[in-house]
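Ticket #4471: structure output looks truncated?

Reporter: J.K.
Steps to reproduce: submitted the chain below (83 residues) through the standard prediction queue, then opened the result file.
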Amino acid sequence: MNNAARNAKQLGAIIRRERKSRDLTQKQLGETIGLRQATISKLERGEPGTQLRTLFDALTALGLELRIHERGQGRPEDIENLF
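Returned output as attached by the reporter:
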C-alpha cells in the first residue's frame, strides 16, 4: 500500500478504506482502541479537532504507520484521483 494524503479528509479516507478492508465496523475499531464509534466517524471524515493520539491509536490498531515525505510536484488532480 502506498497512499498519499495532503489533508485531513484524505487521511480519513485512507483510514476508512483500511478499516473496511479488514472487515471492521467503526464501532469495532473504536472498541479496540477505547473510543466511541462517533469519534472514529469524525476521524474518517477528517473533521477538525481530532487528537493526534486518536489518529495514532487508529493507525496502530490497523497495522499502519505515518511517514512524512517531501511533497511531490504532481498536479492536484492526480492526488484527488487517488481518493
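Triage note (M.O.): checked the attachment and the full C-alpha cell line is present. The longest helix spans residues 8-21.
Status: closed, working as intended.
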